[in-house]
Write a structure and sequence with these properties.
Two copies of one chain form a homodimer.
Chain A lengths: L2 H16 L6 H8 L3 H7 L3 H25 L4 H14 L3 H6 L2 H10 L4 H12 L6 H24 L6 H15 L1
The structure holds a DNA duplex.
DNA sequence: GTCTATATTGTGATAGAC
DNA sequence: GTCTATCACAATATAGAC
């Protein structure tokens, strides 16, 4: 593994465990076995490391939101895709996207903020209804899928069995009504 | 309002908006119209301010977990109480409890960590079953109640109407199966 | 109760040698 | 590519005057 990728792997883990603000360049450098200055050869700033880590998950999320907007997916397909996305990004998204500093950065750098993308998915789950009641239920179902997946990953040592995937999907669909 | 309470009100809002780490003593002091040093007359440290803010919500949460452990509540009663708790602590709990620095402090200061209390409630929702499938569904229902309530509060300008409360409760119960 | 002044530490980041 | 040395700054916190 080249150094840039190593840095990302370490930063990913530390950001997930301690948060973005709670992790210093020195923390990452220590884990890698170099001095902080060495990191600046590979990435021009701490925020640049964050960007590199989030680029792929955010692109996948944007893609999911785009498919949701198209209206060509059933609720089951949409929730299933969201469950799979949650599995792939489990360590990172919850911790990092809850850091206000990170959110502010993403809001000014992305065409659509993560919150807007979530809205697109939730709106599609509500069958594009603008009625508050449908949107409340859709957001509850979205949360059920996310946290149900997280719970299943906890019990499955980090992997989601097909059986548990079915269970979580059925639970979220039940919530959706 | 006395100064101590004013400080808490300001800190509560800033912590909710910018996170604990993202808010400095200087930020709070500026909002109050004094110098940072003045705050140290009222609270011995920034963590002390945090403790004062969280004491009441955490006690309420611990009480809810205790009632869950007693096994004397139905799933509907438990979820209803959790929805009401979520309404009362809406600004604070999500942001603050997702800051790793805050979590670490709470873990070492409380008899039961917030995560343990959540487990107690989720276990009760699973009817004290230790089967992973039941616990996964229970956690999904718990999340549906939480985020459904948050969505309803968004649409209701910060208040939860009886109608929306019924809706969220029904949605979470449906997820629970 | 609040101020000024300051100690102290941590952090992101740069310059320049090797 | 990595180092040493260092800067600039922000943050928590304290001392002591008013």
């Amino acid at each position: 593994m080249d150094t840039k990728a190593q840095i990302l792997a370490i930063a990913r883990e530390l950001f997930a465990r301690q948060g973005y603000r709670g992790t210093s360049i020195a923390d990452i450098a220590r884990e890698l076995g170099v001095t902080p200055a060495a990191l600046y050869y590979h990435y021009i700033s701490k925020a640049d490391v964050l960007d590199a880590i989030l680029a792929e998950p955010l692109a996948a999320y944007a893609d999911l939101a785009e498919r949701a907007r198209s209206g060509r997916l059933t609720a089951a397909e949409l929730l299933g895709a969201f469950i799979d996305f949650t599995v792939e990004t489990r360590q990172l998204m919850p911790v990092v996207s809850s850091d206000p500093a990170v959110r502010a950065r993403l809001d000014e750098r992305l065409p659509h903020s993560p919150a807007e993308m979530a809205d697109a998915i939730i709106s599609a789950l509500a069958a594009s209804s603008t009625e508050p009641k449908r949107l409340i239920v859709a957001r509850a179902a979205y949360a059920a899928a996310k946290d149900g997946t997280a719970a299943a990953l906890d019990f499955g040592s980090g992997t989601l069995s097909p059986e548990h995937r079915k269970l979580v999907l059925a639970t979220a669909l039940r919530a959706l009504g």
